[in-house]
Design goal:
By secondary structure, the chain is mostly beta strands. 8% of the residues lie in helices and 40% in strands. A five-stranded mixed beta barrel has the order 4-5-6-8-7.
Length: 152
């Protein structure tokens, strides 16, 4: 009796989850700042940590943060990843050219902000490189108003 080879099937299921979600007053203030080409952050009164995107409670001290500060628009790449694929409506597709995602420490902030790195070739990106924020023109009053970062 022979062996039975397993049958493999590739199934692609598109995923689409549209929904409305109230983002709260802290992220609303952050988004309003983006539409004005400002990056707003919250500052902890106890440890002095500056968080962007802003949050209400400091994760280090468990203290409510009420002080707002503007950070950036310049910053430093602390880490990055090269994206060879992306997910669009639940389907994986190749990207050409490769997309670069960076964790940026904005001037004046202690937390890192993740976004795309624009106009930089993968061979040229490095930890410690200086970048500046790129804003959408005209702004649309949403998260997309911060397009990404470009090298300075």
């Amino acid at each position: 009796m022979g062996t039975i080879e397993p049958q493999l099937a590739e199934v692609i299921v598109p995923v689409d989850f549209p929904y409305n979600y109230r983002i709260g007053q802290y992220l609303e203030k952050y988004i309003k700042g983006l539409s004005e080409k400002k990056i707003m952050a919250t500052k902890c009164p106890k440890c002095g940590g500056v968080f962007v995107p802003p949050r209400k409670v400091c994760g280090n001290c468990n203290v409510i943060m009420k002080e707002w500060v503007e950070v950036g628009p310049g910053g430093t790449v602390e880490n990055y990843a090269l994206g060879h694929v992306r997910v669009v409506n639940g389907l994986v597709e190749k990207t050409d050219p490769v997309e670069i995602f960076a964790l940026v420490k904005l001037d004046g902030a202690t937390a890192l902000l993740a976004s795309k790195l624009l106009g930089v070739k993968p061979k040229d990106v490095k930890k410690g490189m200086r970048v500046k924020t790129v804003f959408k023109e005209p702004p649309e009053d949403n998260f997309g108003d911060l397009i990404g970062f470009e090298s300075t």
